[in-house]
Amino acid sequence: MASTGGPSPSQALAQQLSARDPDVQLMLQVRDDVQGAFEVLVRRYQDRLIGVLTHLVGDPGDAEDLAQEVFLRIYRARKGYKPQAKFSTWLFTIANNLALNHLRGKGRRPSGPLDPGTDSRPALPASERVAAPDGTPSGQLRQSELEGVVREAVGTLADDQRLAVLLNKFEDMSYAEIAAVMNRSEAAVKSLLARARMELRARLEPYLRSGDRAATS
Question: Ranges for the RNA polymerase sigma-70 region domain (predicted)?
């Protein structure tokens, strides 16, 4: 049968992704050895990637090492790069696999919350914050304390729930994108997030109740 001359499905997908995702365009430039393109990608994602990895493995030093390995693998794979999803989905899929392998190798879950003075994990997204009652130093202190409590609560979630929350809240990923990273169905991701929200609500409710009593006393 004669070819119609149109793009194949994979080529059409690559064209669509490139048109709507500037990071896919950058990665295609990396594939073609455009000078400076890879450095731009690293600068764009490095801090975010280290933040998510720190939440996953619990140690900032290990997170930095894993982030370097993620970028190294991306660079080594550049010549065979064919866009199949958003660049961030591909990047965090690699990061998740490396983090899981790292934790299996150490035979442990992530360590507990870092000391607040040295915590390099990203600040909570606005949607996860509870506004301080006022702009006074005491109100600001309560805001900081609450964010620490929420961060600690996120750290107690099961690994898969924690990753789903991080990607949903910190990276603003859709259910479909999270499903691709975690190799789960969208329904499974929705279920993970629903259970995670219930657990977080249960853990935070006593703190919030005590804060309300303190604010009205």
Answer: 41-109
